[in-house]
Structures
1.
Amino acid sequence: MIRNMSKLLRKTKKKKQNQQESKPQDALHQSFNENVEIFRSIYENCSDVVFRPFSIFGKTRAMIIYIDGLSDVEGLDENVLSPLMQETANESQPFNELLENKLPVSNVKKVNLLADCIESISTGNPILLYEGGSDGFSLSLAKWEKRSIEEPAAESGIRGPREGFTESLQVSTAQLRRIIKSPALKIQSMKIGSYTRTTVALAYIEGVADQTLIDEATNRLQRIEIDGILESEYIEALIEDNPYSPFPQIKSTERPDVACANLLEGRIVILVEGTPFTLIAPISFFSLLQSQEDYYQSFMISTFIRWLRYGFFVISLLFPALYVAVTTFHQEMLPQALLLSIAAARETVPFPALVEALMMEITFEALREAGVRLPKQVGSAISIVGALVIGQAAVQAGLVSAPMVIVVAITGIASFMIPSYIMAISVRMLRFPIIFFAGTLGLLGITMGIIAIAIHLCSLRSFGEPYLAPLAPLKGRELKDALWKSPLWKMGTRPHFTGESNVYRQAQGQAPSSKKGGESGN
Amino acid sequence: MEKGKISSLQMAMLMYPTIVATAILSVPGITATYAKQDLWLSPILASLIGFVTVYIAYKLHKLYPEQTVIQFSEQILGQFAGKVLGFLFLFFYIQTTGHMIRAYSEFIVGSFLFKTPISAIIVSMTLLCAFAVHGGLEVVGRVAQLFFPVFVIPIILLILLLIPDFEIGNILPILERGIMPPIKGAIVLSGWFAEFFLIIFLFPFLSDRRKGMKYGMITVVVAMMTLVVVNLVVFFVLGITTASQNYPLMNVSRYISYADFFENLESIVMAVWIIGAFVKASLFYYVTVLGTAQWLNLSDYRPIIWPIGILIVQFSFWSLPSTMALARFDFEAFPLWGLLTQTLIPLFLLLIAVARKRKQTGSKTS
């Protein structure tokens, strides 16, 4: 008895699965009733799907299917329902054409396949089915609540455009198109994720981006088979070159101007529906240490700030480790006065420098992490606890030496100078093993740590492009935008690895001078 | 087997620390022992060996452009003799790598980390090198390129900061006892310049082969000049006591005092030297691994990185019981041993190869 029952159950289950699997590929049925039945069974238990039956011109039975909240209901009322219900039929024209002419909707697509209908409904475009036709109409009346364009929170600046990408892909691609108006800007989109059906768009400039790069990116994207894409990190994790690396091999940005600058240098941009963070590839180590403002300032200031950033990058990686190594192994390196004051400060501290450094660094990281996740109202509590308890009280209690607090504070500031947040995190993470090396082998340990990181960076690639380019391998021409920042009129060529197919980006000899033009009288 | 390509510039930046890194530390002491105040002449004389070696390597490379010495020695000498010679080369390189890493570790333990067991330092260095070799020639080349300024700039700074302590008169009188003492010093030093033979393992993997010879020669010149300058600087500061120091450059760096803040910078010498030694050891290690794989006709060299690493660690202990034995080997055995395997044997190879080619073309035309 029970066995029979379970068999039966399994059969019905199979049937259901079969139905669901085979259906989406099918074409729409000839019969209107049948079609409505199919849609009703597909959207069973979906309370947000609305079925609106009505008659066209008072004769033909029809049905509009849409998802509540994704479609423009007012537009549907005004532009679809009212004209179709009120007007009377003009028999001379075929019904199909008549319908298309009567609909004051900008984009009406004829759909034949069930899968296309479902796609259209899910994206917010209502489907119009009518009696006597084996096809339906997808009406572009999608409209849902979205965030307005705001200043990007994670990449702010003083000078430069203040708009950032939003979660809506259409708005994002429109922002790109508004900056790069040439039709050479291509945006290919595809759906990824078996359940989320997230739209992922690959943007590049034809003739500037290398064709092999575009093919490679398309290949890598098409290889993805996953249930859902919720953020661009999902894509990044599935297409990067070396997943076992602490360093990001793809840059993310929420600024349209940054995305466009990279497009113009021959890189590709991947936009993902549902997140303002777009992906840029291929990148180099140095592009993660550059900010958009480097290009919006005079080249001398940019070069100075870049060097400051490089310097603090090294500090954020090495400073605590150097402190540990010098105070534990190489005291002779310090001048006597400095050594005495450090020794005096460390006198009461019960821990070795290594433990002290690890303790303070971990506490600082905890403070930072807590600050990010905390509701804004509680935020001030963290800063008070951080400043008073961990800073002042710990030093007064003799648990931590004051120089150590200073070291941690400088390191913390240094790590916030890195423009790319992901890069800053990887540097913070690498700091700990280096502190540990410094505590066991002194300067030798630090040097070995640096060598190990350098070997790793040298073997890393981003979409096939060497990560440390243009420094290793050395490309003299490109140092203009890595080691320093040349004035704009000297940046005549695109980067070697990405812009090789279209080398020159501007005319030569545009250096401004007082002799050129201007005063016509002379 | 090796798919990566490096540029001639990368090759030069690989070769320079390979020769200079170990030389700047101990060579002033060694040459001063023989040449006294004329020690600056020794590198100039010894560099002749460097020029000759690079020339031989380039000529051999011209004859067999796609192969390394392990492969074409079989073609020159026949299979059996070629294999024997190949084994000799490999043995030399494994032994030299081990010896070199041992010297590096002795320096670290003797000057800085007195209580650290030497095996810890040897093993950690070998591991680092293995990591680099695993990435292939491209990675080794890029790392060398990346570290080149890190290696060179501190040396220049060191020299500049030492200027106040110079006693230029130390080198006078010039050639007091004739030309023989500098030549004796040069013979010891020629062991280092013979190491330029490593270049023959890099020539087949250059992306711009025509510049190979030029950059090879430039490297020899720059290395020679560096050694001359370092020898002079050390002797300007230390005078005749240079001869009694194991690592004179270290002692010299203790003289630096600038703005009452930059003092006791020998740790920087150490950091620089670690980087130089790393580049040197990884190039030797890479050449050994590549050569062994070619000698055994393997399709990939990566599987033998690990076993050869163990051999290198072993060789850094075998036959070198103490620092004294190490220093004696440097003085007495290495110059001849290095010169023999890296300059004289290749010279004979070249002569035989040229003779064979002549014979072949002669028989073809007749």
2.
Amino acid sequence: MRQAPLSPQMTVALPVLGAASILLAWQYLLPLLGVPAYIVPTPTAIFGVFQRNFALLMDNLRPTLIEALAGFVIGNLAAVLLAVLFVHSRVLQAAYFPIVLFFNTIPILALSPIIILIFGLGMTPKIVIAAVICFFPTLVNMIRGLDSASDNEHELFRVLSATRSEIFWSLRLPRALPMLFSSLRIASATAVIGAIVGEWIGSDKGLGALIIQATFNYQSDRLYAAIVLSSSLSIALFCIVVLIERRVIRY
Amino acid sequence: MPDAIEARQLDVGYGGRQTAVKVLTGLDLTVAAGSFLSILGPSGCGKSTLLRVVADLLDPLGGTISVLGETPHTVRSRRDVGFVFQDSTLLPWRTVRDNVRLPLGVGQRSLTRKIEDRSTELLELMGLGGLGERLPHQLSGGQRQRVAIARALLGEPKLLLMDEPFGALDEITRDRLNDELLALWRRTSTTILFVTHSIAEAAYLGERVIVLAANPGRVVKDLDMRPFKQEGNRCKREDPAIVAAMADLRAALERAS
């Protein structure tokens, strides 16, 4: 039998209660079970890092935020532009899309040292890695989105003698927006991953560098605090994308 | 005044000229300007394909066709043709009013005449007065088709092509829209080509009904309905003469299937 839907109050309260129960178990149960603090520090210990080392955390958040944001913008913009080019030229798509596919099969961890070799140790390689990791899902989704108008919709525009650019702006692009936003939501998380991976390989600044330093120094509370901050950054980017999506897509 | 449509030995198909699958073969058809023609036929007989050739959405493989005395391309470029699809083909991100105004936003470059923004008037005419700011998903199926008709009428087309526009609607809504369409046709001098699967709808709406047969598509029945109707293409659905004409059309349709 189908369960009755939850009330609006319960829909809000249950996830909060769920998270609180896990935090409580984490705080009190894990030490009782003998899990050492250098492996899993308690939530209060992690929170303590935010109080004690707030400036350090913010200093490391800033470069990661800039790299992730710049990578997000550049990677998605490049993907959208290439998708527009591909849907308007089947020849270009046939010639170069397989190469892009091949490029996508290279693991980002294998590609990152090459990018660092090319661009050096500054922020640029991290931005490039974040951009590369955002690029492919957006490209594929955008090509599908721009091609997703129905035959009848295309015929309607043809009956109206619409030009190619009118078809693009009034039909193809609005049709593609839901798919674009679903890939932007994915990219909001992957851009942060890209920036952090870049920082692991060659940086002394950023959340990625902080994670590596904290791991090697057995500062597990600092490590967990950096993880919480990375996750919060992804969530913040995700929420911004969702807010923009709600304003843009009303149907 | 030239005929609205004059087709001679028209061959239409899909695919290249050499490998094409022919849907219509050797079709001869003349449609007088200002008339209401219903087109009946089994699935795959080429009813919709014929509309697509008239609208310049598909090139014929052979034969000749003139629309309003000119090529389909010229007529389409001049926006003298309106098309209503079976699914209303409303753009979901545009409000009802903006959907009706779509012809003002696109295709203006090829246009020599000026199209007025008659969206308010057309929305009123189609009984959509208070719904202009709604989005398509907030409308019923019948309301969506009314919007599609209003959009097709915005450019004041001389020829309105309707491809099973009421096929997905319930019977009551369909009957109501039939009456509204007839009232609209009487008020304008628009020629209407109306494709339908419903014999009753074809007989009620058309001044003339043609039945197409499949494999290959050709006209197997051409029935002038005017003798059965009063002035202005008026009739009652249950009129014995209309019922008899429907039986005649049904027999032709059965032979064609």
